[in-house]
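User: For a benchmark we're assembling, each entry needs the component sequences followed by a predicted structure for the full assembly. Here are entry 17's components. Please fill in the structure.
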Amino acid sequence: MTSTTEQLSATTLLRFATAGSVDDGKSTLVGRLLHDSKSVLEDQLEAVEAVSQARGQEAPDLALLTDGLRAEREQGITIDVAYRYFATARRRFILADTPGHVQYTRNMVTGASTAELAVVLVDARNGVVEQTRRHAAVAALLRVPHVVLAVNKMDLVDYRESVFAAIAKEFTTYASELGVPEITAIPISALAGDNVVEPSANMDWYGGPTVLEHLETVPVSHDLTACPARFPVQYVIRPQTAEHPDYRGYAGQIASGVLRVGEAVTVLPSGKTSVIEGIDALGESVDIAWAPQSVTLRLADDIDISRGDLIAPSASAPATTQDVEATVCHVADQPLTVGARVLLKHTTRTVKAIVKEIPSRLTLDDLSQHPEPGQLVANDIGRVVVRTAEPLALDAYADSRRTGSFLLIDPADGTTLAAGMAGESFASRAETAVAEDDGWDF
Amino acid sequence: MTTAAHHLHTDSGADAPYALSHLDALESEAVHIFREVAGEFEKPVILFSGGKDSIVMLHLALKAFAPAPVPFTLLHVDTGHNFPEVLEYRDRTVAEHGLRLHVASVQEYIDAGRLRERPDGTRNPLQTVPLTEAIQQLKFDAVFGGGRRDEEKARAKERVFSLRDEFSQWDPRRQRPELWQLYNGRHAPGEHVRVFPLSNWTELDVWQYIARENIELPEIYFAHEREVFQRNGMWLTAGEWGGPKDTEQVQTRLIRYRTVGDMSCTGAVDSDAATLDAVIAEIAVSRLTERGATRADDKMSEAAMEDRKREGYF
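Assistant: Structure for entry 17:
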C-alpha cells in the first residue's frame, strides 16, 4: 500500500507542455512517462495492443495512447492538443501534449499558455534545427518559466558527451538571448529509457537529474506570488437573504500576488479606493490569500464594482490604457487585418476594439521582422496596435502572464482570432527587417 | 458544508512559500470556471445525475457562490433504468439546497414513440435526444457536465468550454484554442456551450476531494451485497430493465459501483471497500480505468465515446 500513501501525500501540481517535431520521439517520451509512472492502465494498454495487432504491427504502438480521435488514428497524425494526467509520489502533473506539425504554432501557444515548464525535444543526430528554434521562441514569447531541452536518441550517437554538450550549448545560448529564464538540458533515450525515469548507465558523464526527477522538483507558483496583487472581479455575490441582508462580495481568482485583510485597494478603471475588510476563501474567512486561489473579497466601502473591474493594492495599481501594443499569435483560419473591428477579452472584461496597426510580422526561424504585413494569417506571430472602446487595466505580459494576456475575438461569429501578450517582447525589436514575403509553411 | 481548516495553509511538503496543494489548485480552477459561466451566460444548467462527478460539481458550485444560492438550475436525463438509491439521493439533495431540477425522461420518449428501445436493452445512447431537446426547449446556453479528460481518449481532447451548434454536435476539428484561463463563451442564438469544470481532475482527485470535503454519496459507491448477474464480463444489477435473461444466473456478491449510470450498461466491481479511505486505497492501486471497468457502452467500438459526443452526448 506504499503507493497509496505516497500518492495521497503528493502536494503540488505542475502543468507542463511538450514540444517536438514529428520524428523526435515525443510520443515515446510521453508514453514512457505515463507508462513508467503507472498511469497507463491495463484496459488502455489492451485496447492499444488490440488495434496495433489488427493493423499488423508487431509491437504496441504507444502513439495510440495519445491519439484519441478517429481521424487521428486513421491518418496516424495528431490533430490537437490533448491533456494527460499522471502522478508520482512527489507531485501531480498535467501535461499539455502538443502535436508537432499541422497548425503548429497555435497548438504550442495553447499548450504553453498555462505551462510552467516546457520540454523541447531534439534529435541528437540532427541537433538544433529550425523547429527547435521555433519551440524555443514560442516558449520565450509565452514566458514559460522553465524550459527543459531533452536531447533524445542519445543511443544513436553512442551516448557521446561531446554531441550532447554541443547541442546544449547552442540551444542555451539561443534561448537565453530570447529571455528564457531557466534552461535545463538532459541527454536521454526515450526508447531505451535512459534518463527519462531511471538514470542512465550509458552516460555516467552526466550528473544531472532525469526528466522525471526534474519535473518533480522544479519549483512552481513562485512567479505568481512575487508579483503585485491583481484581482479581476468575476461576479458580485449579493444573497439578499434574511441571513445575509447586507453581504456584498466580489468573487474572483487572484491572478497574481498576495492579498491581505486591511490592505488599501484601488478599483480600476474607476479609480475608486477602499480597504479589504474580509476575505472569504470558499467558505472560510481568512486573513491572507494568494494566486491562484479563488476567493471573495469584501470591501469597507459600498462602491460601484462589477464584473470586469480589477481590484489591486493602491500602492501598486496598474495604469489604464485604451491603446494596447502587443505581440499576438494568430490562431484562426480567417486573417486579422488592419482596421478590423474585434472584441478584446482581458481577464473578466470584454471590450470593443479596432486593430489600428500591424507594424510587423515575425519569422520564428530566424527572428527576422517583416514590416507592415497588412494582415496576419493562421499561425503568424506579429506586433499589433489595438485601440479599445474602454480603458483596460493591463499589465505587461512580462510582468504577469495572467493580467498581461488577452484574446481577440471575432464579434460576428465568436471565433477566437488571436492570443495577445501586452507590452514588449523580443518580437518588438525592429532590428532585422527582411523584405521576403512568401511567409512560412508548417 | 464543512471545510477542513488546514487545507488553505501552506503545506509543509510544498516547495514554495505560497504553493497550493493539488486539490486546492483544482478546486480554485473549477470555481473560477463556475463563476465565469455565471458572469457571462444567461441561462446555465448543471447536469446532475446523482453520480459522484456531478455531486462534486454541485459542491463546488455551492462553495463558489456562498453565501448566496447557486445561480443555476439542474437537469437530469433519467433513462428509466436508474438506480433507486441514486434517484432518492438526487431528490433529497435538490430539496436540501432549495434547487430546481428539470428531468428529461427517456421512458416518456419511448412511451410516446419518439425513441425506440434498442435490441440490447441499453438506454445510455438514447439519452442524447432528450438531453439535446431539453437544452433547446428550455433555452439553456451553458450546460455543465462532469466529464473529465482522464476518463477516455476522446475526452482528453475536450475543451473546458466546448461550443455546440444548434444540433448540439461536437466537432473535434473545429474547437477553439483555449489559451491561459481566458474562456471564450461567445455563441449564436440556438448554440450552447458545454462546460467541464472537472476537466483536469482524475478519478483519484475526485475521491480525495470527496474525502477531504466530507461529501455524502449514494450508498451504491460503497461495498454492499447485491443481486447481480454477469453479461459481457460485467456484473449488472438484476432488475426490471431486462436482465437477467434465462441463460444468465443471478448471484449475491459483495460489490460496489465506480460510476453510476443506466443500470443496463453500468457494471459493478467486486470490492470490500466500505469506507471512503478503503475506496481511495482501492482506486489508487486499480489497474483498470473507471470506464474500462464499468461501462459496457464504451466497448461497442473503438470510437464509441467520440461518436456519441459528436451527436451531442456528454
